[in-house]
Write a structure and sequence with these properties.
Length: 490
């Protein structure tokens, strides 16, 4: 005989920051019988702290605390002494804004780009992106993609008249793609970026020795034992069930192993990538059209990390990053347009790698960044081929004696069917706030009786209008949906 359905008051789907924040907030408010279903064998979602090389941690997923003021994760980490031991956090985020003289920029011919040119171009690039984020774009730029806006604005600068200036500027755009999680800045809205908000204060790109997992553990303290079921992938969410003799609950959650849970409420915190993949089949009845449109219209990109571990350090002591500047990079407008059709770009997928940076607590390791369709394509290749290409790039660009890699770790978030990418962005010609609100709205939106309200709620970084892409955005949406339920019963 098969087991009958298990009754639960609230089911939370997903154990990332959104899911754990929701469950923790509900439990602290006195809710009983809260269950978290996690598809993977581990908790954390897109937060994945591991020790693949040494006894020290690596962040395979999220590794940034974006700002301090009003950032609940910074506040938790500070209160629990989980921040890095460094004297201070970086005042600027990753990318062109955080470039220092410790970053070595190399051209294809093996020659270094002067630090003066790098500094001038990166500073100018940062001023241009700040205008977009601060909603200070001139009217003529507002309807353009981020890539087109940057190109047109850069043309007005004397820096655009030098070959090295143009090449470094392409590197800046390539690096900005990793912040946006997009295939190209020519596919991202310039004006919509003003809705994204950074909390004030320094950025932490490394937490303490426990990594991001230590912050998750703080939330886990609030949860009773057996609250989380791992290896419990949800297949179907049946909602708007009419209460009768056979149906006592308005929502039913069915897992892939056919284990069924009946609930009063379900909080869905899966990634936008999973919703893109499964939303049309996961929900019965189907989601409303405006929510399906939001899932389709919002962007969800892949950012890949390439960790290379060497037995010995081969770069100078004053070098914290080896950045690669191409003669014809993928974020050059002509190159992008030429590669927009066909699959010739796959032959040069590695050109999307921005460079290789040093890794905290791993003095002989380097980390390469890659994004978009090139990152997705890279995920289909064997580790040995990827590391071989990276070694060839390091040797040809620097001219240094680069030893073979001892160990390597390649992330594969895009092809992970439990995630399907890294984080969300707002594509060109999409009203981000409208779609994020539609994605966040609970179901059913209207009901004849109060018992039918708030059956299915939605959280996750892609549902936050200002803090999308971030861990604190995910956390805050989990709290938001938990509070929605708490207020419902007050």
């Amino acid at each position: 005989m098969s087991e009958g359905p298990e009754s639960v008051r609230v089911v939370v789907v997903g154990s990332g920051f959104a899911g754990l924040a929701a469950a923790s907030t509900l439990v602290k408010a006195g809710f009983k019988n809260v269950l978290v279903l996690e598809a993977k064998e581990r908790i954390g979602g897109r937060v994945h702290t591991a020790k693949p090389f040494t006894e020290n941690v690596l962040e395979i997923g999220a590794n940034w605390i974006h700002g301090q003021k009003g950032n609940p994760l910074f506040q938790i980490a500070k209160a629990e002494n989980l921040l890095s031991e460094e004297a201070s956090a970086s005042k600027k985020k990753r990318g062109p804004q955080s470039v220092t003289t410790r970053d070595y920029f190399f051209r294809e011919d093996g020659k270094q780009v002067s630090a003066k040119v790098v500094d001038e171009v990166c500073s100018y690039f940062s001023k241009l992106t700040d205008k977009a984020f601060d909603d200070e774009l001139e009217r003529k730029y507002r309807k353009l993609s981020m890539g087109n806006y940057l190109d047109k604005a850069f043309e007005e600068s004397s820096l655009a008249k030098t070959d090295d200036g143009k090449k470094v500027f392409e590197w800046c755009k390539r690096t900005e793609c990793t912040d946006e999680a997009c295939s190209s800045l020519y596919e991202v809205s310039a004006s919509q970026d003003s809705n994204y908000t950074e909390p004030e204060g320094g950025f932490y790109n490394t937490l303490g020795p426990g990594g991001y997992r230590a912050v998750l553990d703080v939330l886990l303290r609030n949860l009773p034992a057996d609250t989380i079921k791992c290896n419990a992938q949800v297949k179907t969410i049946r909602w708007d069930l009419i209460k009768n003799e056979e149906e006592d609950y308005p929502v039913q959650v069915v897992c892939e192993n056919e284990k069924t849970f009946e609930a009063e409420h379900v909080i869905v915190t899966v990634s936008l990538g999973v919703l893109k993949d499964k939303a049309k089949t996961m929900f019965q009845p189907s989601l409303p059209k405006n929510k399906l449109n939001a899932i389709e219209n919002l962007g969800f990109g892949t950012v890949g990390k390439i960790f290379l571990y060497f037995e010995n350090k081969f770069w100078p002591e004053d070098c914290s990053g080896i950045q690669m500047v191409w003669n014809e990079g993928p974020e050059d407008e002509e190159v992008y347009e030429a590669a927009s059709e066909g699959e010739a770009w796959k032959k040069t997928w590695y050109k999307k790698i921005t460079g290789f940076n040093t890794v905290a607590r791993h003095p002989t390791a380097l980390l390469g960044w890659i994004t978009g369709r090139e990152a997705l394509y890279m995920e289909t290749l064997p580790d040995s081929e990827i590391t071989s290409v990276c070694l060839r790039l390091l040797r040809s660009f620097t001219g240094w004696s680069v030893p073979d890699v001892s160990k390597a770790l390649i992330t594969r978030w895009g092809t992970d069917f439990h995630v399907r990418g890294s984080y969300s962005f707002v594509p060109q010609d999409v009203d981000g706030v409208k779609e994020q609100k539609a994605l966040a709205s609970p179901l059913p939106t209207k009901s004849k009786d109060s018992e039918g309200k708030l059956q299915v709620l939605f959280a996750g970084e892609a549902t936050h209008e200002n803090f999308y892409t971030t861990t604190h955005g995910a956390y805050l949406t989990g709290v938001r949906e938990a509070q929605r339920l708490i207020d419902y019963y007050i």
